Amino acid sequence: MRIRTLAALAALATAAVLIPAAARVGAQAVAPVVAQATVPLIVEGNRPFIELSFHKPDGSVRKARFLIDTGGGGFLITEPLARDLGLRWGATTHEEGSEFAVVIDAPQVDVGNFRLKLNPQRTLVVIGTSSTLPRTAPGHADGTIPGHVLAQYDLVFDYPGKQFTIAQPHVLTHRGMERPMPVSKAAGFPRTEIVVNDTTYGLLIDTGASNTMVSEVALKAWGGSHPDWPRYPGAYGDAAMLGGQALETLFLPGAEWGSIHLAKFGVVSQHAGVFERYMSEMMAAPIIGSLAGNVLKSYRIELDYPDQRLYVSEGGR
């Protein structure tokens, strides 16, 4: 996928219903249950990546670099990787200028020695592309790990320490500021809240996006009340790595995330309704935007999906 929009990726969460039942077959081989695994976390362009190990039919292992996207809708695999793995897929569908096909048999894939559980109906090949990142993003990704896969586990994004941990439920010892994190059942999208100007706003926790986004309604209200806050048309500065459409960029002087004070950061606006209506329907409660990499990269963040709790530490503490 060359251009990433929240609406496009979220729509993939329900794309499997369009695939004939005959294509929905295949099961993964049983692997020993591993309690947890920790692997290097690569942060590039405000986005987190890890290396996955795919098991090919001939017994060999194929390494691939994947984006970890808590706001993503499908387990995406680029066509070159899918062909190298010998995957089969069914008829293709189109979504916002990209072409996708649901796999017939889900691949066997590990994070370290930790086997991921994949749903074949929500594992898609991205046809005709070698990277699932936007054209404006640095680096590349052979695929994307989405919300519904991640929501089975307890995850730690240690951005400062450059490590990623995945664990079975109730294995890890938590640390950091604790906050509620409602998770939507179908999409596995995690929700949090921040306070701007004494008003609380709901946001999607979106590791796959490089820059925090909000509805144009919120951005215009903040900019109108505070004309001194820096404001630019389109995607300005680091926001250019986001890809897709950005109406405006506004720099907030700060915000409160529970007991943590967020220093100055930029937000870009999307059309009214993208978050308030479309994305909110896929969340556990309404949102007006998404908290993304330009903020998250400064923290150690644990997403305890099973217990729907968020833990945040400053500077990796």
Largest sheet: 10 strands, mixed
In round numbers, the mean pLDDT is: 90
Strand segment count: 23
Which stretches are poorly predicted, pLDDT < 50 over at least 5 residues?
A: 1-28
Helix/strand-derived category reads mainly beta
The number of helical runs is: 6
Radius of gyration: 19 Å
The helix content, as a percent range, equals 10-25%
Beta strand %: 35-45%
End-to-end Cα distance, whole Å, is: 35 Å
**What is the molecular shape?**
globular
- List the secondary-structure elements in sequence, H or E: HEEEEEHEEEEEEHEEEEEEHEEEHEHEE
List keywords for this structure.
6 helices; globular; seven-stranded mixed β-sheet; 317 residues; 23 strands; mainly beta
Task: Write a concise synopsis of the structure shown.
By secondary structure, this protein is mainly β. The protein has helices at residues 6-11, 79-85, 147-150, 216-225, 274-279, 293-296; strands spanning 36-40, 42-44, 47-55, 61-68, 75-78, 89-95, 98-103, 108-111, 114-115, 123-127, 143-145, 154-158, 163-167, 177-180, 191-196, 199-205, 212-215, 231-233, 248-257, 260-270, 289-291, 299-304, 309-314.
Structure, described:
With 317 residues, the chain is mainly beta. Helix content is 12%, strand content 40%. It contains six helices and 23 strands. The strands form three sheets. Strands 2, 3, 4, 5, 6, 7, 8, 9, 10 and 11 form a ten-stranded mixed beta sheet that branches. The protein has a seven-stranded mixed beta sheet with strand order 15-16-21-17-20-19-18. A six-stranded antiparallel beta sheet has the order 1-13-12-22-23-14, with no helix packed on it. A hairpin with a 2-residue loop joins strand 6 (89-95) and strand 7. The longest helix is centred in the last third of the chain and has 10 residues, at 216-225. The protein is globular, with a radius of gyration of 19 Å. The two termini are 35 Å apart. Residues 1-28 have low confidence and may be disordered.
